[in-house]
Amino acid sequence: MQQVLIHLIKLQELDSQLKQLESLKGDLPNQVSRLSEKLLDSENGLKEDEEKLKVYQKERAMAEMEIKALEGNQTKYQTQLFNVKTNREYDAVTQEIENVKVEIGKKESRLLELMDAEEETKSTIKTVQEEIEKLRKQFDEKSTELKKRLANTEKDEAALHDQREKVLRKLEKRIVATYDRIRKAKNGFAVVPVIRNACGGCFKTLPPQRIFEIRQMNRLFLCEVCGRILVWDEKKSEGLE
Ligand SMILES: [Zn+2]
Question: How much distance in Å is there from the Cα of 172 to the middle of ligand 1?
Answer without folding.
Answer: 24
